[in-house]
Amino acid sequence: MIQRRLRTPMAKFLKEHLEKAGRSLGDKFIKAVHCDEEISGGYVRGEGIVVCSNHTNIQDEVNQVVIHELIHAYDDCRAANLDWANCAHHSCSEFCILQLSPS
After folding, report:
1. How far apart are CA 42 and CA 21, in angstroms?
2. Taking 60 as the threshold, does the pLDDT of residue 101 lie above it?
3. Does residue 69 carry a catalytic annotation?
4. How confident is the model at residue 24 (pLDDT cuts 50, 70, 90)?
5. Whole-model pTM?
6. Which of 16, 47, 61, 69 is flagged as catalytic?
7. Do the Cβ atoms of 82 and 61 come closer than 8 Å?
8. For residue 85, is pLDDT > 50?
9. pLDDT band at 33 (very low <50, low <70, confident <90, very high)
10. Which own/partner contact pairs does 18-26 have at CB distance under 8 Å and 24+ positions apart?
11. Is the separation of the CB atoms in 32 and 62 below 8 Å?
12. Is 90 exposed, middle or buried, given 0-12, 13-18 or 19+ CB atoms closer than 10 A?
């Protein structure tokens, strides 16, 4: 399901711009894992994106997670002083995602 999502125009656009910003996406940048926490996925600086295979059961859920976390990866790449532990910084990234989401 991850590979299917990565072939869509939005994912291609985000990947292209991440690479232009200096972030190379290797084969292991986005991976499906079993998560103990009740989350769908996440972005971890220096590690990449995880999609929780035990909490995302349909393509639409995977689509949402991959795009959401690619945007966080882009923000992390572009913002020089981004501190994910700072609620204002994290909220700003989340707000940007909300603005891009279709209504």
Report:
1. 20
2. no
3. yes
4. confident
5. 0.80
6. 69
7. no
8. yes
9. very high
10. 18/70, 18/73, 18/74, 18/77, 21/74, 21/77, 21/78, 22/77, 23/73, 23/74, 23/77
11. no
12. middle
At a CB cut-off of 8 Å and minimum separation 6, what does 36 contact? none
Q: Angle at CA 20, nearest 5°, toward 10 and 67? A: 25
Whole-angstrom distance, CA of residue 29 vs CA of residue 18: 12
Closest CA to 32 of 6, 17, 52, 46: 52
Question: Which amino acid, residue 79?
Answer: A
Residue 77 binned pLDDT confidence (cut-offs 50, 70, 90) = confident
Strands 30-33 and 41-44: unpaired
